[in-house]
Amino acid sequence: MRLTVARGAAPVLLAVAVTVGCVAAPVPDQGASSGADGTATSAAAAGSPSAAHSVETMVAGATTDRVVIAAGDIAECSSGGDEATAALVAANPTATVLALGDLAYPDGNAGDFADCYGPSWGAFKARTRPVPGNHEYRTADARAYFAYFGAAAGDPSKGYYSYELGLWHMVALNSNCNEIGGCEAGSPQEQWLRADLAAHPHKCTLAYMHHPRFSSGKHGNTDAVDALWKALAEAKVDVVLAGHDHNYERFHPQSATGAPYGYGLRLIVVGTGGASLRPFEALQPESYVRASIASGVLRMNLRTNAYDWRFLPASGATFTEYSSAPCV
Questions:
Q1: Among 208, 228, 211, which Cα is nearest to 302's?
Q2: What's the whole-model pTM score?
């Protein structure tokens, strides 16, 4: 692990470079902690097992490789944060954009999409595969969201769908459970999810939704999506992305019950798309890397049987972290 610390009058900023490595068995993440001021910190030592593996260059090699850019909590007309993160997306012109919900503040109505989201992230609409956030549902049935994205957002009565990206199976979930008949075991979405995952075995799989199952941010854990999380874990899905809390947080791989498990789900919260950032509150046991000091996006290279990721900070910010891992 390489740690770079800059100290000054501002809070301590820590750029974290953690390598899991593409190996037959996963290398356990090392522990991490964060100060109450929301700065990113790490407790892993340079002599840890992770340090024995070199970081892989994030360049798509084989023709089956695909690049995605992900972030949620994006556009406020009163802020320039979404313009700053849009510049990062523009610098990756071939990437599929995963918009993780709460895209157009404050109410996700037609005016918010036209005036706030459209001038920045709207430039990438043709390559965006979104999921809705709670702010989209401040407009009845998230009608403006579904009208804006059209078929790319899935059936408006559901808001969940799946698709193939290179050799990866991608699952877009709707975590606004009260709006779509629930997310509990036996609900239409949970049944659909289990059937969809069963129909796509032996694939690297990435799932994404707005509300994170676990979070150390203001909103905390989302118990309502527990049945969806368990279905993903039981199917050995590799990565779950979410937003909702306005910060960046990566967890140790976790089991269906949230226990540490080397072959489990890797949850990354990327609520850093441009909305105002917030400090962390109740820290969760398996939280590994946290930062509430930089807007930015997550860039992932989805490769054959493995993946890389890197947090790209908006201009003027210095926090980053990157690593790689095999599919499980």
A1: 208
A2: 0.84
